[in-house]
Amino acid sequence: MTDLSPSRPAAPFHVPALSRGHAIAILAGAAVMLSLAMGMRQSLGLFMSPMGKDTGISAADFAFALAIQNIVWGVTQPPVGALVDGYGTRWVTIAGVGLYVAGLLLTAWAGGALALTMGSGVLIGVALSCTTSGVAAKIAARVVRPQRRSLAFGIVSGAGSIGTFLAAPLAQGTIQAAGWQMAVFAFVGLAGIMLPAAMMAASADKLGDGPRAAGDVDQTLADVLGEAGRHGGYVIMATAFFVCGLQLAFLTTHLPTFLAQCGVDPMVGAQALAVIGIFNVAGSWLFGWAGDRYSKPVLLGGIYLLRSAFIAAYFMLPVSQASTLLFAAAMGLLWLGVIPLVNGLVAQIFGIRHLGTLTGVAFFSHQIGSFLGAWGGGLIFDRLGSYDLAWQLAVLIGVIAGVAQMFMDTRPAARLAMQPAE
Q1: Sequence-separated (6 or more) residues with CB below 8 Å from residue 30
Q2: Closest CA relative to residue 159, chosen from 374, 339, 16, 310
Q3: Nearest to 400 by CA among 379, 369, 376, 375
Q4: How far is residue 299's CA from residue 171's CA, in Å, rounded to a whole number?
Q5: pLDDT for 10-30, tens place per residue?
Q6: Fold of 20-209+221-417
Q7: What are phi and psi of 210, to 5 degrees?
């Protein structure tokens, strides 16, 4: 049986005793919060066509709003991570839930591109920084033993993937039955469930970050960022994460429109997003488990290369419901598997004291890619009338990133040599 139990009072963490049941409850709260936040976010592409017909918002304007969401999410993740590292997760997650609800309400009443950009773009972008992987990783790192961190990151991310499996069919079904506005209000109800989940997850704050490494006391934010910037492996990992964001944001934003262009039933787009979500569960667990046993850089590089191969195959074959769902299953296995590996590498190289900050910086690179994937896909479609060039670019850069990622330096920062063994 996998050991996800926390350290006992005699262990190096020196935290209050925590039962296995309480540890599981904390991880479950983090997973539910992450699940709903990501599930709704990844389903927003379903609103592009119906909202455009009703309000006149173009594909490029809708894609720009989601691109702004991605870049705001990326820009705010490092400072939000620093707040979590310094002050805990409780008020950060509560604020995130409130911002998510506000963003959805503004989207429901949006009559033009500006309101949509402020709601689905800015407000939800900040909310995602406060409720998704960066915060969940910090919570999981505090609850489980160091030898099982990658697995814990994978379990939380995998359970969080169930949100897309639930949110996408809910959105598409409500759109068809009652219109896109009612579908957004249904998402508001889902966002309300995030609050008790966030409160439960935030009880991990009392556990602390474990033994303090020599030099940590005097480290400023500039010291932390400078140490990361001088580590070549971290720089390569963060750069490759850019490609991850570009590929995934392009798919979640534009796959429904691409399928409509190919004459495929719109429900297939929702089904594809749901399949991605459910296969994410297995993929996140698999790569989390593997990350505790095998080379994380090789696993990460393999994910990028396999994604590119599946994108190329899907692009070259005739599009149908069957091919789309098979593609979604393959991509789902590789979708969030990067999260436990990236978080595990950051913890391995730098420790967990500044985990929120450093994963946030890497995630900023991811979100620059997401911005270009969402917005660039819309621009290509509007100007060329097809997504052909976008698919080709997604394959090319994925191959480059995969090869580079496999050869990153994973040596721990020098100060960790003076840290007591966890």
Answers
A1: 135, 136, 139, 140, 156, 197, 201, 204
A2: 339
A3: 369
A4: 34
A5: 333 334 456 777 878 888 888
A6: Growth Hormone; Chain: A; (1.20.1250)
A7: 85, -170
